[in-house]
Design brief:
Elements: H1 2-82, H2 86-102
Length: 103
């Protein structure tokens, strides 16, 4: 009978050791998973930041091109206005005055 009790106590001790080792292994796996998750998070953040920087650069380049196009169009319009001679302006002004007088 003593042998049976000793076997049971030995099995309980072994079971306790297995449970304790399993807890230790689970903690190690949890720590490993947390480390991997953090590395993945940092990688995703870096990729997102890289895409944001690329988008900003592209948007800035497009904006600069739009500004240059607008400045060029403005300069062309002003040059067109400067190209109207004084005689033409007088002629149009006279026509407007004549119309008002006719009304």
């Amino acid at each position: 009978m003593a042998s049976l009790i000793e076997n049971i106590l030995s099995l309980e001790k072994t079971a306790d050791e297995i449970v304790a080792n399993t807890h230790i292994e689970a903690k190690a796996e949890e720590k490993k998973a947390a480390t991997e998750i953090e590395a993945i998070r940092r990688d995703v953040e870096a990729r997102i930041e890289s895409r944001i920087v690329a988008f900003r650069q592209e948007a800035e380049a497009e904006h600069q091109q739009d500004v240059a196009d607008a400045e060029r169009a403005s300069a062309e319009a002003l040059a067109g206005l400067d190209g109207i001679n004084e005689g033409m302006i007088r002629k149009q002004a006279d026509r407007i005055v004549t119309r008002f007088r006719e009304s």
